[in-house]
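Quick one before lunch.
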Amino acid sequence: MISIVIPTFNEVKNIIPLLKTLINIVTDFDYEIIVVDDDSPDGTSQEIDKFMKDNKKVKLITRVGRSGLSSAIKEGLIFAQGKYLLVLDGDGQHDPNFVLNMIKRIKKNKVAIVIGSRFLNSSRLEGLSKKRSLGSKIANKIAGASLSNNYSNLTDHLSGCFCLNKEMTKNLIRKIEINGFKFLYELLSLSKGKLIVEEVPLIFKERRYGNSKLDLAIVWDFFISILHSFTLRVIPRRAISFGLVGFTGIFVQLFITSFLTRILLIEFYDALPFAIICAATSNFFINNQVTFRSNRLIKLALLIGFFKFLLVASLPIIANIGITTAFYKYTSADTFIAQIAGIVIVYAWNYLASSSFVWNKSN
Ligand code: GDD
Ligand code: MN
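Model of the guanosine-5'-diphosphate-alpha-D-mannose complex:
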């Protein structure tokens, strides 16, 4: 049996035409189609519900209070009964006519993954703007570099259209991290070059209705995952993200101290506490948007979280001021090195304490 998993969020006008086309294409197979919808406000689930009355092989998982593309795919795949598992977008951008070709290839002995690639010579890329197409190509190059050399012949590690041999991939599927869009990339990364992966060309069409859900947070999440792969998946993703955000804080701090001391001629000792508090504040808001996005605080909780964060951070802030001032006073007159020393020492504390106390995460 073939299980086709389709994630949807606000695809009310796209999903039914896609289901009809797909059903015609796979009609000779033993198949099931599993749509995983995150309770789309546009009524996608309700449309599918109606459609299912006459199409018993279509199943629907409506998730309430959970969201995200990778997470929806994972849930659909774990639910699926088929020997072969095929994933494609619910907006019709992946031309369903390639499905048969993918099924044919996955049935070949030992092939664990067949990717529908947007970047083979015979692929067609109609649905990406120039900017996104360039971004996607660059992201693919970096992604490729972070994966095993065995996968160096692949052209699309980020495709949303792929087919899996369930037996060969089911253990890895369970381990996939569910943030963002990068399900296939994660699977390739986890498999460490041990699987046979093939590609077939795909036509990536233009979206008919609605908008893409890919945003800056998803791009950020993807780059964190690449760094995670480069560290051989040892350093936790959140620690990497927290570190990078902290890195932006360094610039905020250095910029403010130099502005205050050089332009406003304020003493370094007086400028430093203010600069550190500004950096901590900016770190807090950026971390809330990216590092802890899945536990993101809003409205009143955001305000309370901010005070909690200041509380958690005040210890290192005081330590930071103390260390930096001491460094500055006793070792060298170099304000830059003094500040870096303070920053590095408090990073670990800040990460551990704020992830458990402010955003309630266990790592
Ligand atoms: N259930 C669920 N939950 N589905 C989602 C979510 C979500 O949070 N976010 C997106 N989807 C569904 C969309 O409804 C659509 O069917 C599919 O996932 C792809 O989402 P799009 O928003 O259309 O993505 P895209 O076209 O910009 O991105 C495509 O290219 C990326 C690589 O550049 C997709 O193929 C991605 O999978 C791919 O990574
Ligand atoms: Mn799309």
